[in-house]
């Protein structure tokens, strides 16, 4: 009877999205829940989920097992299990759609094969998979019908997929983009150069109603060899309707013209500051350096190759000013290539949570849980999940609007095969780091302890990480000494620390 009661309790936790307690229960008691594999999967602990040998008739657990196998590169095994299950009654239409959607990032061929067995296919998912596999003509046929159906009211993303499916002029790309953003109540976007594609580097937006009063917001922009793109990224921040901002550009020891561009812009706008680190330590450690020089009550980040909608800070700050109980807000983004094609690693949907978007109350966050982990990649996800764990779901609000257009390019951390994602799944390094920080957070939860990252990268780590993403301690010490010399000093010249 006690066992059945516990299983019922775990099922209720699953329905409420409380996956951490289930994993913590296993860590603490040593007893596995029937829902453990699904909990691991929802926590994106794909290695742990794939390592469990699952038997049973719970379709969610099977979905978790199959997708986790694919994420770890075991696609043949995932495919074999999938086609066995599709012959049973366990996977009906709803379950097949869910499985196809979940498999899309890791095994798009298998995902499409599953969806092909479904009647009345969701057009956005169907078109997105066809496009990922290069079948543009078929995707265009699907979208032609969908754009003139009830689906367009539910899924404005169909406009973006239509832009991807056809050879569009820049003006047509712009029209599709504005039809999409109009569904979210955003101001009309324009192209800086009408002859060039709709891309992060070619966007502008004219707004009215500037907000001159309010608490200072610090925006951290880390940069490394960003000369080709940082100009438009900073310009989009300087054009924010919320005016009381300071922008700290932390140059991670670039060897190009990044510094000259930023300093020239800083002369024209005193809200912009430039900090060059003496050694390269990676974007997250650079953020940790920059935040120590910040003066804002609130802090957020922005990537050096992204374009921010002019109301981004306004929309994200407003809930925090209205409700003192809130600790942070987040917003969503779209990633677009320089040719105007939209991209999302998970394939569907295209609009996702922007990992750089948390805008938070600096003092309480730094005091209670610390800032970013001192590693070279993946720390944005850890930081976001730690925010949730420490402050709870009621402490945040997500602004469900595309407030950032990010540049998708092949030479970023996210697309590098040794640190990010590729056609074969997730890199072993990223998987290993995710497992490490998740297990640490789970252990903290089980002990009733708040997970906190130390304020400097030279302190003993709270959990081990793969050597590939560790920071050279000598470089870190150089940067630490440099920041310590600046903390209590004034900028040496206009716009420069």
UniProtKB/TrEMBL annotation:
CDD domains: Glyco_tranf_GTA_type (cd00761). InterPro entries: Glyco_trans_2-like, Nucleotide-diphossugar_trans. Pfam families: Glycos_transf_2. SUPFAM superfamilies: Nucleotide-diphospho-sugar transferases. It comes from the Bacteria. Residues 218-347 form the Glycosyltransferase 2-like domain. This is Glycosyltransferase family 2 protein.
């Amino acid at each position: 009877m006690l066992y059945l009661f516990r299983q019922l309790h775990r099922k209720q936790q699953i329905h409420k999205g409380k996956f951490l307690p289930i994993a913590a229960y296993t860590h603490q008691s040593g007893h596995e829940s029937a829902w453990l594999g699904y909990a691991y999967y929802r926590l994106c602990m794909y290695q742990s989920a794939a390592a469990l040998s699952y038997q049973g008739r719970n379709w969610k657990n099977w979905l978790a097992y199959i997708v986790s196998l694919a994420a770890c590169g075991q696609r043949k095994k995932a495919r074999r299990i999938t086609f066995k299950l599709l012959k049973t009654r366990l996977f009906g239409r709803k379950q097949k759609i869910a499985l196809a959607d979940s498999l899309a990032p890791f095994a798009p061929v298998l995902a499409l094969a599953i969806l092909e067995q479904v009647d009345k296919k969701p057009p956005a998912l169907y078109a997105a998979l066809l496009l990922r596999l290069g079948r543009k003509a078929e995707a265009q046929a699907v979208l032609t019908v969908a754009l003139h159906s009830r689906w367009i009211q539910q899924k404005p993303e169909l406009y973006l997929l239509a832009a991807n499916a056809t050879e569009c002029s820049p003006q047509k790309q712009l029209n599709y983009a504005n039809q999409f953003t109009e569904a979210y109540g955003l101001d009309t976007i324009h192209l800086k150069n009408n002859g060039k594609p709709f891309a992060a580097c070619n966007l502008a937006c004219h707004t009215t109603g500037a907000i001159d009063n309010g608490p200072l917001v610090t925006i951290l922009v880390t940069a490394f060899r960003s000369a080709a793109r940082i100009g438009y990224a900073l310009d989009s921040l300087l054009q924010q309707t919320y005016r009381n901002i300071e922008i700290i550009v932390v140059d991670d020891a670039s060897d190009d013209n990044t510094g000259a561009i930023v300093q020239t812009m800083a002369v024209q706008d005193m809200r912009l500051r430039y900090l060059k680190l003496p050694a390269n330590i990676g974007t997250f450690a650079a953020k940790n350096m920059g935040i120590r020089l910040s003066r804002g009550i609130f802090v957020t980040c922005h990537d050096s190759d992204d374009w921010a909608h002019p109301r981004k800070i306004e929309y994200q700050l407003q809930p925090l000013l209205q409700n003192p109980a809130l600790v942070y807000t987040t917003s969503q983004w779209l990633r677009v290539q320089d040719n105007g094609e939209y991209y999302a690693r998970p394939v569907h949907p295209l609009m996702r949570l922007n990992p750089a978007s948390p805008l938070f109350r600096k003092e309480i966050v730094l005091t209670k849980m610390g800032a970013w982990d001192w590693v070279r990649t993946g720390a944005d996800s850890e930081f976001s999940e730690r925010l949730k764990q420490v402050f709870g779901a009621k402490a945040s609000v997500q602004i469900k609007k595309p407030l950032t257009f990010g540049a998708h390019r092949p030479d970023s951390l996210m697309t590098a095969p040794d640190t990010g994602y590729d056609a074969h799944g997730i890199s072993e390094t990223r998987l290993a780091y995710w497992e490490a920080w998740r297990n640490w957070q789970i252990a903290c939860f089980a002990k009733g302890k708040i997970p906190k990252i130390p304020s400097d990268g030279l302190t003993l780590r709270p959990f081990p990480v793969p050597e590939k993403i560790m920071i050279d301690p000598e470089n870190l010490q150089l940067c630490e000494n440099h920041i310590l010399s600046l903390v209590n000093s004034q900028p040496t010249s206009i716009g420069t620390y």
